[in-house]
Write a structure and sequence with these properties.
By secondary structure, this protein is α/β, with parallel strands linked by helices. Among the domains are: 108 residues, no CATH class; 57 residues; 46 residues, no CATH class; 197 residues, von Willebrand factor, type A domain (Rossmann fold, 3-Layer(aba) Sandwich). 56% of the residues lie in helices and 11% in strands. The strands form five sheets. The chain has a six-stranded mixed beta sheet, with helices on both faces. Strands 1-3-2 form a three-stranded mixed beta sheet. Helix 4 packs across helix 6, helix 5 packs across helix 6 and helix 9 runs antiparallel to helix 11. The chain starts with 14 loop residues before the first helix and ends with a helix.
Length: 672
């Protein structure tokens, strides 16, 4: 642990206040010490900040995707620094789940429904947290290393569940906690009641349930649906049995009192009428364990009766809410569980974060409606429109590390230079002025001065005018994308980003050429097309035909198509064949004399299913003056170096794909 600035006690400061300040300083120090690790783990999706001094727990900001960390929360539970780091990653995953569900269509309603359920039912909240904990810990282990897995096991055995006999608890509580511990500590079964073991076995028999429900890639909404179908009914059934046991125990207690075997009725009445003392007695009875644990809800009925005296319809016997509310019946047991496993982010903090999130979203409602109307107008889904625009925003933030300039800005600058080279500069005379560059009429100057005109207009000024130049031509760019199954994940994401980059910058280039075409004898025209291969008959058809048009609706449809990476084969040769088939004699001549420049860029992350066919098509294209480049994505794309030689390269770091594509465009467009 880093050296801390310990605060000295001043006369006017209370010792407990100083202790809080020292604890806060220690918590901040731990966050700063491990900040690089936490931020690397979060991969920029979640921001890391120390919790403010006034927050003694962890907290979220759902609008800014920020987690506020208070490491002292876990230290106070006896966790070592290593275990605290693991627990912090666990809390980052909890936030990631909530961010994910809020990003879904209707996510705010789903989140609100979940929040209301955990507020309403302690039994549901406990079950949900236990299942979520399995998911969060699986995520942490999958993103780190085996050592973290060993640390997790130690935490469960030494800190959270050192005792694995749960039979002193009510059965629905046994079930949730045993489900968690047995899922995360393999080879050790907990001791539970027979009905609980039966329920656990029934869950285990549902093939693939736990694997899918707690998979880090499973959306929270799907986890909740699976919980509702397979887990919550088990908890409810056990809860009903536990409530029935409580009722029977209460009736037995009343009978014993009536027979004179129990406590004096006067004392009992006193306890039932006094809220604080009733809870105290309830706690004492709950500590006895075994059959006596069912007595713990006994006094809560009296408490509720005095508090509101409200009857429950159809309860037969005039039961009060407290006598039928599981949260009251099992209040003591839930309190013990919460004391042992306190929530790092309390319910009130989640509610606060969600309220702030909803308030922030109100201002976005009008924009959301506008997006929906516009998406309908151009024939796309609102989500696809927003996803596309989000990628454009991300592209605008990508900076070329070699030049420290944004990749989109670099390409825009290149296009401006291309246009400026096609405008020949010439001097053109203006009308005579009072003072200028050249004296063009000396005789008039003398005459005007003699007649008293001391500011004769006998000078000539010049201005720079753009004169139509002699450069002309056309450029056609073809992008070929890989939609085979191996592209799934980040590779497909960066490929989509690269395709969006091409479409966005070529749209701007085409618009710039159109705007300046009056000043150029033969305008420069920029066209583009996009193919994709997925091992189907559609591979020979472009998903965006060759044209200078690139409307937003068309760009979004291309983007959506590239989201599907389920193709069974790498059939790049089919796309190349289709591109080669359009090279008629007229096009070949235009390429040869310099009127047309054709560039083909192929993305792929693996070896072609027919490298020989690829090379045949490449020879046809290159022999006719087409620039054809193969780009291998990650080390798995290394075969392009031989298949697409000599114009081939491999991008090991997939996140750099858009930057590399930008460099390729600059390289092959600079001589236009």
């Amino acid at each position: 642990m880093e050296q801390l600035d310990i605060i000295e006690v001043k006369k006017e400061e209370k010792p407990d206040e100083v202790a809080k300040q020292n604890e806060h300083a220690e918590a901040v120090a731990l966050v700063e010490k491990h900040r690089d690790f936490f931020e690397h783990y979060a991969k920029g999706k979640i921001k890391i900040e120390p919790a403010p001094k006034e927050i003694p727990t962890f907290a979220f900001n759902l609008e800014k995707n920020t987690i506020y960390i208070n490491s002292m929360f876990y230290k106070n539970l006896g966790f070592s620094e290593e275990k605290t780091v693991f627990a912090t990653l666990h809390e980052i995953e909890h936030l990631a789940e909530k961010i994910q569900i809020l990003s879904e269509e209707g996510g705010e309603k789903k989140f609100d429904k979940w929040l209301q359920r955990i507020k309403k039912s302690k039994a549901f909240s406990l079950m949900d947290n236990c299942v979520a904990d399995i998911r969060e810990n699986r995520a942490v282990i999958s993103k780190t290393n085996v050592g973290m897995g060993e640390l997790e096991t130690k935490t469960y055995k030494e800190d959270l569940f050192p005792e694995i006999d749960f039979t002193s608890q009510s059965r629905h509580i046994q079930f949730s906690q045993a489900l968690l511990r047995e899922a995360r500590v393999s080879g050790e079964l907990c001791t539970v009641s027979p009905e609980v073991r039966l329920a656990l076995d029934e869950v285990a028999k549902v093939k693939g349930l736990m694997e899918i429900m707690t998979n880090p890639e499973t959306p929270m909404s799907m986890r909740l649906r699976l919980q509702d179908k397979y887990i919550w009914p088990k908890v409810e059934a056990l809860l009903e049995k536990d409530i029935e046991d409580k009722k029977k125990q209460k009736e037995q207690d009343k009978k014993e009192k009536g027979d004179g075997k129990g406590e004096p009725s006067e004392q009992g009445d006193k306890e039932e009428g006094q809220e604080g003392e009733g809870e105290g007695q309830e706690g004492k009875e709950g500590e006895k364990g075994g059959d006596k644990k069912s007595q713990k809800g006994k006094k809560s009925g009296g408490e509720g009766e005095k508090k509101d005296g409200e009857k429950i319809e159809g309860s037969g016997g005039g039961e009060t809410k407290d006598e039928t509310d599981p949260n009251k019946i099992f209040a003591d047991e839930y309190a013990k569980v919460e004391k042992k496993f306190p929530e790092a982010v309390p319910l009130e903090e989640i509610e606060k974060a969600f309220k702030e999130y909803k308030e922030a979203q109100k201002g976005k409602d009008s924009k959301d409606k506008a997006d929906e109307d516009y998406a309908k107008k151009i024939g796309v889904e609102k989500k696809d429109l927003q996803d596309y625009r989000k990628i454009v925003e991300d592209l605008e933030k990508i900076v070329n590390p070699e030049t420290d300039v944004g990749i989109i800005e670099e390409l825009k600058n290149l296009f401006s230079r291309i246009i400026s080279k096609r405008l020949k500069l010439a001097q053109a005379p203006k009308y005579p002025v009072d003072e200028g560059d050249e004296l063009v009429d000396p005789a008039q100057l003398v005459a005007d001065v003699k007649s008293g005109n001391l500011q004769p207009k006998v000078w000539e000024d010049t201005e720079i005018k753009e004169k139509k130049g002699e450069r002309f031509g056309e450029v056609e760019i073809t992008l070929v994308c890989d939609r085979s199954g191996s592209m799934a994940g980040q590779k497909a994401e960066e490929q989509r980003k690269s395709a969006v980059l091409v479409m966005e910058v070529l749209k701007e280039f085409a618009e710039l050429c159109e705007a300046e075409k009056r000043n150029i004898d033969k305008p420069l025209e920029v066209k583009s097309e996009i193919y994709s291969f997925a091992g189907s008959s559609e591979d020979k058809k472009p998903i965006k035909v060759m044209s200078s048009e690139l409307g937003e609706g068309e760009r979004i449809k291309v983007f959506k198509t590239l989201c599907d990476t389920t193709g069974p084969r790498t059939t790049d040769y089919d796309c190349l064949e289709a591109i080669g088939n359009v090279l008629d004699d007229k096009i070949k001549i235009r390429i040869k004399i310099g009127e047309l420049k054709k560039i083909v860029i192929v993305f792929t992350d693996g070896e072609s299913n027919n490298p020989g066919a690829v090379q045949v098509q490449l020879k046809n294209l290159r022999d006719n003056g087409v620039i054809a480049i193969g780009v291998g994505i990650t080390s798995e794309g290394a075969p392009v170096l031989s298949t697409y030689a000599p114009n081939a390269l491999v991008v090991e770091d997939v996140s750099k794909l858009p930057i590399i594509l930008g460099e390729l465009l600059r390289e092959h467009l600079k001589d236009l």
